[in-house]
Structures are given as C-alpha cells and as structure tokens.
Amino acid sequence: MNTNPTETRATDDSLQRLEQLAGISQRLLEKARALGASQAEVSCSEDRGMDVNVRLGEVETVESTHDRGIAVTVYFGQRKGSASTADLQETSLDATVAQACAIARHTEDDPAAGLADAALMAREFPDLDTWHPWALDARHAVDLALACEAAGREADARIGNSDGASVATAQSLSVYANSHGFIGRERSSHHSIGCALIAGQGDGMQRDGWYSSAIAHADLQDPQAIGRRAAERTVARLQPRSLPTGQVPVLFAAEVARSLVGHLLSAVSGGALYRRASFLLDSVGTRLFPEWFAIDEQPLLRHGLRSTAFDGEGVATRDSALVTGGVLQRYVLGSYSARKLGLHTTANAGGVHNLKVAANAGGLPSLLSGMGSGLLVTELMGQGVNGVTGDYSRGAAGFWVENGQVAYSVDGVTIAGNLKQMFAGIEAVGSDVDPRSHVATGSILIGKMTVAGND
C-alpha cells in the first residue's frame, strides 16, 4: 500500500521504553520479596494508537490512545493475590504490591497455584519481525479513510449510504517478569483499514463491508481496493431469499471458517476441561476429523500475527501439532489448568499462537465446483453454540450455489448441527487463506448440515 511520501518516521524510542518497564517489573518483584512473597510475577504494558472514522465524506472521530498497565501477582505458598495500577509513581507501585500481598494472605490454599516451572522458562528470544510502527498523522489517516469510502460509494450506483470507513494504527510494548529470574520483552504493531456500505432502498437495504489488517502498514491492501471490495460484497447481497428447511452441503467462507477452529479451541482449553464444561472431555488421541485433516501451531513464525518466544507465564514456545491425521494430539493449557488436570503446560497461557489448518483443495471457485449445490456462508450471527454438548445453531447469510455457481443471495436462515459431527463431516479445506487472523485457514466445506429457512 502506498503511503504519503513526505511522511517521516518519528524517533523510535521503544527499546528505551521497554527497558523502563523492565526496570519497574524488577523493582516490583523486589518489593514483593521484601514483603514475604515466596513467588511473584509482574506484567507491564504500554499501548499507543490512533483511530480515525469518517462517514459520508465527513470526519466523525479522531481518537488518540496512550494506555499503560501494571499487574502484580504474588504467592504465599499456594495462596495467591493480584492487584493492578496504571500509576507509575513509587507510592502507587508500593500500594499495589501491598494490596496483592494482603489479598494473598486472606485467600485459601490452591494446590494448582504458582508460577510455571522454572526449567520451562524461555532462554532464547529471536527477532520474530512483529514490530512495524506507522508514523501516521491524523490528517493522512483521514485522507486514507476518505479515499477508501469514496471508492466504495462510487463503485456502484446501488450504493446509497455508508456506515463509514476507518483507519487504525496501534503499537504495544510488554514486559513479563517473575521471581524465577525470567524477564521477557515484546514489541508488536497492528494496523487496519476498513469500510462498511449500504445498498438498496427501504426494507431491501443490505449492509456489508471489507477490511485489511496487518502487522506492517506496507502489507495493507490499497484503501481504494478495500472500498471497491466492500461495494462488491454489499451489492451482491441485494434481493436475498430464504431457503426451504433441509440438509445440504455448507461451505464456510474463509473469513467465517476460522470460527469453527475457535469452537475447537474453546472445547480443548484448560478452563473448560477442568470445569467439565466441554464436549471434548478425554478426547486426546481420538479421531475428531477426517484422516487428512491437520492443525499445527507455529509460535515462532516470523511476521506472524501471534508470534512469541514465550507464553503469558514465560514458558518457552515451540512448534507443535494440535491435530494430526484427524486425531487430537493435545489440549491447550497453561500451568494452572495443567496442574488441575494432572498434565503439563503446553505453553498456551494467554492463548494459542499462529494456527495453520492444512488445505486439501484449491481456492473458493474450486470448492464451489466441488460442492455442486449448497449454501455458501459469508456471515454468521448469534451465539448459539453449547460448549457442553457441542450443539450448534447460528443465524447465517450468504449465497445459494447451483452447479458450482453462485445463484442468489440468502438471508434469514439458521444452520444447525453438532460440532463433533460437523468436524467429522469436513470434506475440504481450501487454499484461499484469509491472512487477517492468527488462525490461518481457507474456506471449509461440511458435507451436510441442517439449514432452516422461511420457504
């Protein structure tokens, strides 16, 4: 994406700011030790950013943010206390540690409480290329947003209104340190441009949009291209129909397919498992997907959206399989949930890092051709997923496909099934990966689901 050629990069003082946060974390650990804590951990963060919104050619909002936070957790044996502050004055920092210690002294022992094992701490910190700050001023951000919206509004005469366009840039610094002597520093950036448009008149109006997001602003799509893509998606939704109730193939477009992976992650995450609130209890070693299906975690991927050398507890990350040959290989655990389950941490305190779902098919046209006739889902609505039973029921919109070609837009339908059956019924994963998420998956075709409409 082209940027203003006269734009100059401001002095990057991020490394000095990281050192300041690291110094604060060390002082807080010393204070906790002096107050009798047997273990302690500190998380320090600083976030800066700007968000610009325009609508119908006029500026609506320009917001600049500069936030920071300090969180302290102490352990007295297996009693835990936590407190936080945004004030860096010594008196406030002292009070925060004292409050955490007071809370710990009045809690009960928790056998699973405590830092992750010292032997698991990360010792190598490669450059993962996650730091690309954008020296973007408000005037240029507004120009980009206006250009994006204008391109969308001018792309088709049926575009009659707009929900606006936005440009956002953010950079984050974070330090995690604990009483094992571990200290980890991270820098990350994230930028986005998006547009939402409205087509049609009266009860026939339809809304849709498009956005681009990336670690480096040079990787963003051109603003005008984003606006035109938003217009194409919006007008394609005009004159939607419902469908008769029945069982048909359902193809989840890449931008919504990652939600299926999200349901898997929720079910195999430690909190749901030790609370016995998952439909995938005792499922490690079980075939959940077709034999060709695989998901790998790649935390050390250069330029990855969730790349990191250590998790939220300082545990060293490594590439590992989540699903191989359709079989679930492991759960997703931090040290607390691992202890509750009698297992070992998988270096996922704070979540997963860069999942890659293996493709076995071509792009979207190839998948549509292979499906023949069925429903292409481009939008999901509602939260109708039962994590305990795996029952799935969500509102959906998209397109009916006949003989491998899009026939007409569809709205007002519900798609339903059970996640175990849906996982087992996956017939294809496309190569059309949506790059805007740390879950890298193409479109996903499920052979049969119940579609309920009004016809």
From TrEMBL:
Residues 40-104 form the Metalloprotease TldD/E N-terminal domain. Residues 245-453 form the Metalloprotease TldD/E C-terminal domain. Signal peptide: none annotated. SUPFAM superfamilies: Putative modulator of DNA gyrase, PmbA/TldD. GO terms for biological process: proteolysis. It comes from the Bacteria. Belongs to the peptidase U62 family. NCBIfam families: PRK11040.1. This is Peptidase PmbA. It comes from Stenotrophomonas daejeonensis. The gene is pmbA.
